[in-house]
Amino acid sequence: MASEHNNDNSTSYQPSEPRPCTNGCGFFGTAGNRDLCSKCFRDLFLEEQRAASAKVVVEKTLLHGGVASRSSPSSDTTDASVVVTAEPPSSSAAAAAPSGPVKASNRCRGCNKKVGLTGFVCKCGATFCGVHRYPERHDCPFDFKGVGRDAISKANPVVKADKLDKF
């Protein structure tokens, strides 16, 4: 019985015969890579990732654009308004993307020296060298005292007891 099981073709052991890549690139594929060579499998995997990320972005755009319209009672009007409201933000987002998120600079804002990987990012959002990294050295507009006050007030709420009646 054990010998019949070993001779059966349904075992997990794969034959060692090389198979050509299913894309026809001329290299040999493996069963672990869906009978594709390593390069074709990597390209297919990257395409699948891009498609999945594009799908997530579209769903987020539709969800973000349609949040206000989903509160309406009719589902037919909701679907129509989701589609209508989803298109303008994507076109305006494409126009606002270059000016919106600012790429991190690799130069010190104080002396314009190249900092590379050793740059320090301040709470004001600028990158500085080792000399100008301290808030006092670059006249930082960030309100450290205000942030500290807010943190203390959140951590220590006011506890006030009721007054006791004197007898």
Automatic annotation (TrEMBL):
The residues covered by the AN1-type domain are: 102-148
Q: Per its UniProt record, what Pfam families does this chain match? A: zf-A20, zf-AN1
Q: Where is the composition biased (Polar residues)?
A: 69-79
Assigned keywords, A-Z: Metal-binding, Zinc, Zinc-finger
Q: Which residues form the A20-type domain?
A: 15-49
Feature: compositional bias, Low complexity:
80-100
> Residues annotated as region Disordered?
1-20, 66-100
Q: Which InterPro entries match?
A: AN1-like_Znf, AN1_A20_ZnFinger, Znf_A20, Znf_AN1
Q: Does the keyword Protein biosynthesis apply?
A: no
Say which domain of life the source belongs to: Eukaryota
GO terms, molecular function: DNA binding; zinc ion binding
So what does this one do? May be involved in environmental stress response.
Q: What name does this protein carry? A: Zinc finger A20 and AN1 domain-containing stress-associated protein
Q: Name the species this protein comes from.
A: Arachis hypogaea (Peanut)
Q: What is the lineage of its organism?
A: Eukaryota, Viridiplantae, Streptophyta, Embryophyta, Tracheophyta
